[in-house]
Write a structure and sequence with these properties.
Length: about 500
């Protein structure tokens, strides 16, 4: 364990580093630099850690997303980097935790305790040689001084116009001060302390340690009437879902015909149905398989009916995937359509985990733990991709076969600007194809962007990016923006 003086020096150094890297700039390579230095500061404290598989996963996810920020710096990967970092700290505080949600909850408790724990680093010796620390009461009392001064200044200013003028001038001068520097400094101090300061959480760890994957037998005898009710219910649910799946296979898989109709409701209807079905299914399984129903003799028919219903839900998920395929095939890529794919992956994993709960008699904690872990892995993996560029390039390259909404392309990040430039002939052909897809009457009845408006808006966006990029700091550098600027420069040279 590092001495308080060493920890305090590391805290001050890391705070200064954070302020230098992030003050008055965006997020880019500075995030990776800070996290490397933060990891080094943590190691300098000589604090060991039990590198469990979950801690390794969280640390690897933090590192991977930090590198991805340098590559494309999307908002999604930045958010996942922060979440992974918080999760990693929670597991460093208590590596014995086996669930992501427990680690995240502990990290929140840790953040709450960090300010008080930081004050204990301020130690000194009094005249008798005894060790003294700053108490919480001292901190709160000191913090109340400026608040009380502001309160009495307002009261005195209200009673005396001359004094009130002085107070107004003081606040006017304070408003001109660079508060962003103060905010950055405070955030840096908090983030540094969050990583470096140790806190205790015995009661939480005891509570978390009582959660297990295995379902324990419950003393009360099983209700045979409840068992018969479950049999009837899952048999009926299977018949209902079988009919739905047969209709989906016929009308969505085999006989689907696109005639210019909007497919948004076509996809969203199936997605919401799937969400409700999975949530209700999980609730029913948790209810009926909550106790001794898992262990009584002769429960095989109920388990088979439950498994069949879960498999039919997987079939329903496949039908939603087919709907989403048709949507992308005719209207191109978009974030919500990609989100449907990610949701379907998580849903299939969730259904598989519910099946394991039924067959292996697992607890609801098991279901929660592994579902959240699966969702975390899926979104971290998804955040590593530069979706803005993939969406823009796919939609432009397939403009002859899909409906391309020009206004949507302009809403994407500025790093896609080099891929959005089209010749007048291409824009005219794209415009004609859009009219053909929806029909000219319906196309013009909606406020879709015209090719002329698109060219004007794109030229303005390119000019803004071209003028602003050279003034950016190296701290917010990322490869995608740098490549976009170079590609635009090549086009200027070619012209």
């Amino acid at each position: 364990m590092a001495r308080p003086t060493t920890t305090l020096l590391l805290l001050l150094g890391l705070t200064a580093t954070f302020t230098t890297l992030f003050y008055d700039t965006g997020i880019g390579i500075n995030l990776l630099v800070f996290e490397i230095l933060a990891a080094g500061a943590w190691l300098l404290q000589a604090r060991g850690a039990n590198w469990t598989p979950l801690l390794r996963l969280a640390t690897a996810s933090t590192a991977a997303t930090a590198i991805a920020v340098v590559v494309h710096a999307s908002a999604m990967v930045i958010a996942l980097n922060v979440i992974s970092g918080v999760l990693t700290v929670g597991l460093l505080v208590a590596p014995q935790l086996s669930a992501t949600h427990h680690a995240f909850l502990l990290a929140i408790q840790h953040a709450w305790k960090v300010p008080v724990a930081t004050t204990r680093l301020l130690t000194w010796q009094n005249a008798s040689g005894a060790q003294r620390t700053v108490s919480t009461r001292t901190v709160l009392t000191t913090a109340s001084v400026p608040l009380l001064l502001a309160l009495f200044a307002a009261l005195y200013g209200a009673s005396n116009p001359f004094f009130g003028d002085l107070v107004a001038r003081f606040y006017a001068g304070l408003a001109k001060a660079d508060l962003a520097l103060l905010y950055t400094l405070g955030l840096g101090a908090f983030c540094s302390a969050f990583l470096l300061i140790a806190t205790q959480h015995e009661r939480f760890l005891v509570w978390a340690g009582l959660r297990t994957d295995t379902l324990a037998r419950t003393p009360p005898p099983v209700d045979r009437g409840e068992y018969r009710t479950a049999i009837v219910l899952f048999a009926a649910l299977n018949l209902l879902l079988l009919l739905l799946n047969v209709l989906d296979v016929q009308h969505v898989w085999m006989d689907f015909t696109f005639s210019g109709q909007y497919l948004k409701d076509f996809v969203h209807q199936g997605t919401w149905m799937l969400i409700i079905s999975i949530v209700m299914g999980a609730a029913l399984v948790l209810y009926f398989f909550r106790g001794d129903l898992n262990f009584i003799r002769g429960n095989a028919p109920l388990k088979w009916l439950c498994l069949a219903w879960l498999l039919q839900n997987a079939m329903l998920a496949a039908s939603v995937a087919v709907r989403n395929y048709w949507y992308i095939h005719h209207f191109g890529l978009a974030y919500k359509r990609i989100g449907v794919i990610l949701f379907l992956l998580a849903a299939l994993v969730g259904l598989w985990l519910v099946m394991r709960k039924v067959t292996l008699s697992r607890s609801s904690f098991y279901l929660t733990r592994w579902n959240l872990l699966a969702a975390y892995v899926i979104v971290v993996a998804a955040s590593l991709f530069d979706w803005d560029t993939l969406i823009a390039r796919y939609n432009i390259e397939h403009r002859k076969t899909i409906f391309v909404e020009l206004s949507y392309l302009l809403q994407l990040d500025e790093k896609v600007l080099p891929y959005l430039s089209l010749s007048d002939e291409d824009l005219s052909a794209l415009h004609e194809h859009n009219e053909t897809v929806l029909g000219s009457d319906r196309y013009w009845s909606y406020s879709y962007m015209s090719p002329d408006d698109y060219k004007v808006a794109l030229r303005s966006d390119v000019q803004d990016f071209w003028n602003a990029y050279p003034d950016r700091s190296w701290r917010e550098w990322n490869w995608a923006d740098a490549r976009a600027y170079d590609l635009l420069a090549e086009k200027v040279i070619d012209q």
